Amino acid sequence: MMESGPLTGPVPTDGTADATHPRSAELSGVPAKPNPAANPANSEIGGTLWRRFTFRRPLAALILQRLGLSVGLLFAVSLMIFGGIEALPGDFATTYLGQSATPQAVENIRKDLGLDKPWTERYLSWLGGAVQGDFGTSWASKNSVGEQISRRLGNSLFLAFFAALVSVPLAVGLGMLAVQFRNRLPDKIINVVSLAAISLPEFFVGYLLIMFFAVQYGIATFPATVYDSMSVTERLSAIALPVATLVLVVLAHMMRMTRAAILNVMSSAYVETAELKGLSMFRIIARHAAPNAVAPVINVIALNLAYLVVGVVVVEVVFVYPGMGQYMVDAVTVRDMPVVQACGLIFAAFYIFLNMAADILAIIANPRLRHPR
Amino acid sequence: MPDMLSVKNLKIEATSYPPGEPPKVVTLVEGVSFIVEKGKVLGLIGESGAGKSTIGLSALAYGRGGVRITGGEVLLDGKDILTLDRNGIRSIRGARVCYVAQSAAAAFNPAHRLGDQVIEASLRHGIMSREDAKKRALYLFRVLGLPNPETFGDRYPHQVSGGQLQRAMTAMALCPNPELIVFDEPTTALDVTTQIDVLAAIKHAIEETHTAALYITHDLAVVAQISDDIMVLRHGKTVEYGSTKQIIEAPREDYTRALVSVRQTKRDEAADQTGAQLKIENISAGYANGFKVLHDVSMHLPKGQTLAIVGESGSGKSTLARVITGLLPPTEGRITFEGKELPRALKGRSNDELRRIQMIYQMADTAMNPRQTVRDIIGRPLSFYFGMHGQKKTERVKELLDQIEMGTRFLDRYPAELSGGQKQRVAIARALAAKPELILCDEPTSALDPLVAEGILNLLLKLQEETAVSYVFITHDIAIVRAIADSVAVMHRGRLVRFGPKSKVLSPPFDDYTDLLLKSVPEMEIGWLERVLKTRRMESAGN
Fold first, then answer.
1. For residue A19, what pLDDT is reported?
2. How far is CA B179 from CA A92, B101, B196, B401, B479, in A?
């Protein structure tokens, strides 16, 4: 037994209390029972302003901490992207000039693009611009990178949004269904199908879908290219196949995680209580198990959403969809560094942001932090 | 008119999967029959593994894990509920028969408000409207003496104390107006001062609502206060079944007699308590988050004697043990052992200083490596402190096993192959192996059944006589203090309330807290609860 915070009275033996509410590692920095209001011992809580703040507003403190960490991480990533690109062999000037690359011409281009300056100077000026939303101009097309990206990013998000809209409710629903019919036929079918879907590479799934729905039955459009002049319905029908591909790829992972998280909760004492209240299986799962399985499920959903935005490169290429992924791949082949850097940074920002959002949602989903004593 | 609940010739089985062997069917309960009349309470009593909970849950046609009810009848109002289909059983659970779990802290869903959980069953079974259910919940919160009954339902489980949760659980069971409630050790996890309030609340609520109840516990003194009849169980079979009066006052079976007379050993304290092998002076300690747990605590212990530290959970008694071992360096004060000041932190202490103070924990389970045999567990301090190995070490381990009355056949067993009492004995042997001068015992018997616990206490006393080892014995149980202590320290909220020879501390005049603590210990006597409640101020009702 150990005393883990101010106590206002008898509490259940800590053995049971801690076993029931395992705090995730990320929450361990917060005292288990912050209870400033009701206890005179409060005055003894010394320390810095920040420590007092974490005691009074554990939720706000944790969220602030997450935000701070995310910003720090983003800067670290920007440095890594820049460093990584510096370390790449070959450069834009030689690729651009191709056969006509005389040392003098290469030197001129390098000078034009400012490549002769030390990398720290270039990094700082790039970062300064990026912070203000200015990603410079593309070396290859001389267009503003920001402008290009905003259109491409919109397309990618459009695709990801609809994939998420279909896959998230479907995954959570199927996961709950699998729990309800645990180890029975529906569960097994869901498991096998999802395992098959997760095992097939996305380009293969993509081509399969094209073969059946576009070539044989002709009910879907291919390629999935979208133009500015298209209406929303036309766009939707154009992206049907890439969305289906993405859904199949991310669905299984989320579904299996939902199932595992809920099953884990199903073995807890409060689910037994619910069962002994004579509640229906569906209500037990939906009302008593699911809310306590939210944190792990949110995490895996966020990871998959990040994948939808970031990892669509292959799908975009397969379906000739004008999104960020394709833009970045094109830029890499011609060593168009401003574009590669900008894409990398935006992808990283999405990843970090979604994971941060998942963390924060998981923190908020914890009733102990949401309603401190 | 049929009885409320009539269980006939119940047989319950489970399949166990021993590692490396084919699965086998184990009989948990056999040939158990009893009757509960309307408005009456039947106490089911026995040690762990006696099948009490399993029998209790059979009244809801429920088997935990792989447990199956394979024979007999469970007649609720004359109708066998074991023959019902899924929906039939569901319509009984939470409506006609309700269940109060041992650990309310685990049995309430952390994600929902208490009020919603309390009225859920009533609403789902269509027993009452939301308005009526809320009214009834409010009424029950009042009957059960919960603080601020109007707003109590708006709170989340983690926002109220353990005693309050246990009462809320009782309210949850009473809410749908069930015909029968199964109480499964509802006060076992609580402190004595809280237990008495919860016990009184449950008793009052049962009388108010005329519900029949099954009351499961391992504490005969508790069940004597609340039940009309008692059934004593052992190894899944009935030992004795009779009225409470008969069981307590004229038990027929040896096992029942042992249960009734348990914890009545008393030991006289040592006459001379002047020396101080261990001296604790003005100790204050706290945790890294700045919260202070111990405030200016001083006490001392003469060589070869036992100092009992009593208090509720959260009183700082385990923290004090951590401070003495050096696991938690104190912020102020000093500890002297055999006339020499001990370094504050574990790191600063020499091997010999470490050897002289050993520790026994509450949970022998978690204090031993499940992958090591008894030989390794006891042998480890032998090689660590004395550099023993080979034949010599084995001989010494055997010697120690004899000392703890277990014998050499346990040499190559794993902890999982030992019973709870045997595990605690091995933990004692491990502590003894270091030839310590002081052993800190942190509630070593509180997880054990009364008879087993008594065996451990007797063993500790015997070892003290043989080796003149001193004990600091941390406990929340006054009966244990009476049985073994020479001097007593009472702790409350991190402060020392009372300290001195046992005879002085446990006799009047008392301070308020010690008075409350002593009066809260259930006695093996019918009518004790009423008598105490009359004399006692209900100030701790907020527990």
1. 36
2. 84, 17, 25, 52, 36
Distance CA B44, CA B33 (A): 12
Nearest CB to A278: which of B91, B107, B363?
B91
**One domain, residues A328 and A212:** yes
Work out the pLDDT band at B541, boundaries 50, 70, 90: very low
pLDDT over 60 at B508, yes or no: yes
A167 in the same domain as A115 = no
How far apart CA B172 and CA A72 sit, in angstroms, is: 48
CATH of the domain at A297: 1.10.3720.10
> Under a CB-based contact definition with an 8 Å cutoff, are residues A312 and A155 in contact?
no
* Cβ atoms of A109 and A92 closer than 8 Å: yes
> In angstroms, rounded to a whole number, what is the distance separating the alpha carbons of residues B525 and B204?
19
Domain membership of residue A67 (yes or no) is no
Strand ranges for B257-398 from DSSP E: 278-286, 292-301, 306-310, 332-337, 340-341, 357-360
Residue A271 lies in a domain: yes
- Encode pLDDT of B373-423 as tens digits: 999 999 999 999 999 888 999 999 999 999 888 888 888 888 888 888 889
Contacts of B107 in chain A (CB under 8 A): 269-270, 272-273
Do residues A320 and A186 both lie within one domain? yes
3-state secondary structure of B297: strand
Is A110 in the same domain as A165?
no
pLDDT, tens digit, 9 for 90 and up, residues B50-64: 888 899 999 999 988
**Cα separation of A344 and B211, whole Å?**
68
**A269 chain-B contacts, CB cut-off 8 A:** 101, 103, 106-107
The CA distance from B432 to B462, in Å, is 13
Cβ pair B161:A11 closer than 8 A: yes
Interface test with B, best of A39, A56, A276 (most B CBs within 10 A): A276
**Whether residue A14 has pLDDT greater than 50:** no
Of residues B105, B176, B14, B211, the one with CA closest to residue A279:
B176
Is beta strand B332-337 parallel, antiparallel or unpaired with respect to B229-234? Answer: unpaired
Tell me if residue B171 falls in helix, strand or coil.
helix
Is A302 domain-assigned?
yes
Q: Work out the pLDDT band at A24, boundaries 50, 70, 90.
A: very low
A2: nearest CB among B162, B312, B318: B318
Flag whether pLDDT at A200 surpasses 80: yes
Q: What is the pLDDT of residue B470?
A: 94
Max CA separation in chain B (angstroms): 76
What ipTM is given for this predicted complex? 0.77
Range of the domain at A204: 145-370
Chain A residues whose CB is inside 8 A of the B189 CB are 12-13, 16
Percent helix, strand and coil across chain B, each to the nearest 5: 40, 25, 35
B391-405 pLDDT per residue, tens: 999 999 999 999 888
DSSP character at residue B186: T
In a domain, A224, yes or no: yes
**DSSP one-letter code for A364:** H
pLDDT in tens, B328-354: 899 989 999 988 899 988 888 999 999
Which residues in chain A are contacts of B289 at CB distance < 8 A? 5, 31, 45, 51, 55
pLDDT in tens, A106-140: 888 878 777 778 888 888 888 888 888 788 888 77
What does the alpha-carbon distance between residue B482 and residue B244 come to, in Å, rounded to a whole number?
26
Residues A299 and A244 in one domain: yes
Domain stops at, among A131, A156, A179? A131
Q: What is the number of domains present in chain A?
A: 2
Size of interface A-B (CB pairs under 8 A): 157
Residues A195 and A120 in one domain: no
Residue A101 shares a structural domain with residue A161? no
Query: Which of the listed residues A108, A131, A154 is the one where a domain comes to its end?
Result: A131
Q: Cis check for the bond before B509: say yes or no (omega within 30 of 0).
A: yes
Q: Is residue A337 located within the same domain as residue A214? A: yes
